[in-house]
Amino acid sequence: MSDVLDDSEIERILVVMAHPDDVDFGSAGTVAGWTDRGIEVTYLMVTDGDAGGFDDGVTREEMAALRRDEQRAAAKCAGVTDVRFLGHPDGRLEATLDLRRDIARVIRQVRPDRVLTQSPERNYVRIAPSHPDHRAAGAAALDAVYPDARNPYAFPELLAEEGLEAWTVREVWLSGGPAPEHYVDVTGQFDRKVAALRAHASQTGHMGDGLPEMLRGWLSGNARAGGLPEGRLAEVFQVVDTA
């Protein structure tokens, strides 16, 4: 396991996720803890989530607009106000050079110390986090961190045309992968995590009163695996040193 930077060393964090709601299922409690400590967090959603939902009466364009609004509302529950969308196709995401450039651009704009993204590896124990879009977003984000954003000669138009200087991200946190190692106690942020997920009504509304119970089951299992005391709740990550 890599040494994890203390949050006191972190000023800015960029969260890169494939779909609206991905950050809230995996990491909203952790993000709420970061913003409580005064860390500036930016969300970057690679797609608008237009392939999600359960209502055939809603057009895909309407769903995309709805999910953007839901993500903005969910972000506020975690203390995040800067939410950006790249608009790549939901369900057909690939880790292309264009996507790497788009993420590298935002890295250079935000200049984060830490990036949180999805694991590019398939998790055979829990398959849901390994949606192809998740793995593509994680792979492109990692490539954007290293080598793209730090190399002034990668995507030279970012510097020449947009004035975006190279930037080195010191650390990447991966969510949903097969090698969990770093456990974050989010017991105190649990209610805000639930509120963030309820904001995604088009995706979670059908879960009703069962949503908190489902989340407690996941998070208490994480806490036990991480050796936390009984009754605690945790989110889990793999940490990669990218300095």
From TrEMBL:
Keywords for the protein's UniProt record, in alphabetical order: Hydrolase, Zinc
Listed GO MF terms: N-acetylglucosaminylinositol deacetylase activity
SUPFAM superfamilies for the chain: LmbE-like
GO process annotations (BP): glycoside metabolic process
A Pfam family reported for this protein in Swiss-Prot or TrEMBL: PIG-L
Domain of life: Bacteria
EC number(s) on file: 3.5.1.103
Descriptive protein name: 1D-myo-inositol 2-acetamido-2-deoxy-alpha-D-glucopyranoside deacetylase
Organism from which the protein derives: Actinomadura macrotermitis
